[in-house]
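Fill in residues.
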């Protein structure tokens, strides 16, 4: 089969939320797009995360991107013809000590100095106004009151369907085995097929480092396996998404009464087999943290748990933007277990950048060039 049988303006490698979002935004700008996914759309990090739509606590470099993405989230139902399960809800990071509260106050002050006012400090009484069931020892918190949460699979599939409605072609179970530049085109050999396009986006998640290295632009992507828990149904007691300052936690009670727990404790990830395994001692720590902060959780039982493979960068912020070595090669990967909320906005940025060659977004902190001398995992 010749490359001309599968030709487009842009090839996207990776069918997670960032690949699907970028494909959609490129199509909105009139580009023809092919998405190659070695498994199925949303199979890995994009489908198994906690679904937090969170600006709270982001790395300072991510804040402008997160703000823009939030604007898209507020209109996500009209944009994608699917509400994605999105609900506006407070995101609150609780402080369990006065020292932690001082840390949160310092962050709030730094954000204010940068011109951002979306994070607000809560004292003991204010945090209980939002979290009446919180433990007595909690002294306050930092909140973004109009953040929220959504359904990861539903959202990723909504981006896929909208992109397909604009002509984007998705090839699942199609692994990019070899990529090379030939003349003005990128040629991708995937199983028995060949694809060509003048532009290429590497959005391959935990496997993106392998692709970048094959193109002589290595990046130290670590495969990690964040773990999640879903509990039995409990009487409703929490309307916010809750984190902790001094230990990992992501906590939210769903409308049906179940509680979803995550926050960063990890299982074991195997990039070669696409599999991840639970580490139950770490899972127990997540459960204990939830009980410590919400004593009502003592009555809960674990209904199911899972983990998934995600790509993490050493500095915990993603690689976003153009290649430092090749024209018309772009990257969007390494979101380090906090990329779900960024998906709509980063996709818009990449769609603009790829279609026009320019962007006003502050992408310098995310350049792949920052790893040019870094040791590889």
């Amino acid at each position: 089969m010749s490359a001309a049988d599968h030709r487009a303006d842009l090839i996207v490698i990776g069918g997670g939320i960032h690949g699907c979002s970028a494909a959609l935004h490129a199509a909105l700008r009139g580009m023809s797009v092919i998405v190659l996914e070695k498994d199925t759309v949303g199979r890995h990090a994009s489908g198994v995360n906690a679904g937090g739509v969170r600006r709270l606590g982001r790395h300072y470099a991510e804040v402008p991107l997160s703000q823009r993405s939030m604007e898209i989230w507020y209109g996500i139902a009209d944009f994608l013809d699917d509400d994605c399960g999105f609900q506006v809800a407070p995101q609150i990071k609780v402080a369990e000590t006065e020292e932690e509260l001082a840390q949160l106050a310092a962050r709030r002050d730094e954000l204010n100095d940068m011109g951002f006012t979306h994070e607000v400090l809560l004292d003991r009484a204010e945090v209980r106004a939002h979290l009446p069931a919180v433990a007595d020892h909690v002294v306050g918190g930092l909140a973004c009151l109009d953040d929220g949460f959504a359904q990861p699979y539903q959202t990723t599939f909504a981006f896929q369907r909208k992109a397909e409605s604009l002509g984007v072609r998705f090839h699942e179970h199609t692994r990019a085995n070899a990529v090379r530049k030939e003349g003005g085109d990128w040629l991708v050999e995937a199983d028995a097929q060949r694809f060509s396009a003048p532009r290429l986006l590497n959005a391959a998640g935990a496997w993106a480092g392998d692709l970048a290295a094959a193109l002589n632009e290595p990046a130290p992507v670590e495969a990690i396996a964040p773990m999640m828990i879903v509990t039995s149904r409990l009487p409703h007691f929490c309307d916010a998404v809750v984190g902790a300052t001094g230990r990992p936690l992501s906590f939210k009670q769903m409308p049906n009464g179940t509680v979803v727990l995550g926050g960063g404790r990890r299982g074991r990830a195997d990039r070669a087999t696409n599999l991840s395994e639970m580490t139950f001692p770490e899972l127990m720590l997540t459960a204990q943290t939830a009980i410590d902060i919400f004593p009502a959780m003592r009555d809960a039982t674990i209904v199911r748990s899972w983990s998934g493979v995600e790509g993490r960068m050493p500095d915990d912020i993603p690689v976003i933007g153009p290649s430092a070595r090749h024209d018309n090669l772009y990257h969007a990967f390494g979101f380090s277990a906090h990329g779900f909320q960024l998906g709509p906005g980063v996709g818009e940025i990449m769609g603009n950048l790829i279609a026009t060659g320019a962007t006003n977004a502050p992408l310098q902190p995310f350049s792949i060039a920052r790893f040019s001398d870094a040791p590889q995992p």
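The two ends are 36 Å apart (CA to CA).
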